[in-house]
Every structure is written in structure tokens, then in C-alpha cells.
Amino acid sequence: MQPTVVSVNGRTFKVWTNPSCSELPQIGPLVRFTADNKTKNIYVWEFNSGHHGDVSIGLKLEDPYNSLNFLRGHAAKKDDGTYEMVGSDFLESFVGRLAGKEKVFLSNLLSQSWDWVDSYILVTVWLHSFRERLSL
């Protein structure tokens, strides 16, 4: 599938939707992604090209900060050619301020099934570890 060209804040870069295993290496060894649990689409782009907000604006995703439908993170290419989630600035932003609404939101987001994303980027192990670290 051809990537979509996104132009935001004076930058132009490519975003792949549901990239195949052969397309991921073309994007780069370190990528950012946004997974939409409602549509089961994953959007992937080269890590240094833009931020999640840039892609949200450029693709007109309706993904407000408090939406439980979106998982945002970054992943690295492993030696075997697969990509594995290595972090999420969005999720990490909750660390240290887990109280009330934030704790409920994060617990609800992490309680959803994100297994479908593993066919593109392996996220399950990182999400499980993150959830355990926060004792949710």
C-alpha cells in the first residue's frame, strides 16, 4: 500500500497505514505509531519525521487525549526483522500522577485488547510490563 504524505507545521513526511512486514523496514529502524482500536488501523512513520500530534492533524484522526480507542508509541526493529514496542511518551506521561481520573483512564485503556496490533508491531509484552510496573 502506498503511504500517505502528511504536511504539518512546515514538515512533510510519509505515513503508512497497516504496513506489511516488507514495508516496515522501508520506514526505518525506529518508528512511531498510532493504533486505532475502533477501526483496527495502525499508522506508522519514521521516528524523527513527526510526532503523534502531527499525524493526528495531518490524517484528521479524531483522537483526543482522553480517547480510549488510540494507542500511541514507538517501536524498534529487532534482529529477526520484527518490530517491538519500546516506549510510549503518552503512556509514560501518566507515571507519577496516577490518581483519580488518570488512573481510571489508563486502567481502561490498558484493559482493552490490543493483540491485533501484534501482527504489525509487537505491543503486548511492553503493555503488560508497563501495566505491572504501575500496579494497575
Walk me through this protein's architecture:
The protein is of the alpha+beta class. The protein has helices at about 25, 50-60, 90, 100-110, 125-135; strands at about 5-10, 10-15, 30-35, 40-45, 70-75, 85. The chain has a 6-stranded antiparallel sheet, with helices on both faces. The chain starts with a strand and ends with a helix. The model has no long low-confidence stretch (mean pLDDT about 90).
Brief digest:
28% of the residues lie in helices and 28% in strands.
Q: How much strand? A: 25-35%
Count of distinct strands:
6
Helix content: 25-40%
Class per helix and strand makeup: alpha+beta
Q: Which stretches are poorly predicted, pLDDT < 50 over at least 5 residues?
A: none
How many helices does DSSP assign? Answer: 5
Strand order of the largest sheet: 1-2-4-3-5-6
The biggest beta sheet reads:
6 strands, antiparallel
Query: What average pLDDT do the residues reach?
Result: 92
What does the secondary structure layout of this molecule look like, with pairings?
Blueprint: E1 4-8, E2 11-17, H1 24-27, E3 30-36, E4 41-46, H2 52-58, E5 70-77, E6 83-87, H3 89-92, H4 100-111, H5 124-134
Antiparallel strand pairs: 1-2, 2-4, 3-4, 3-5, 5-6
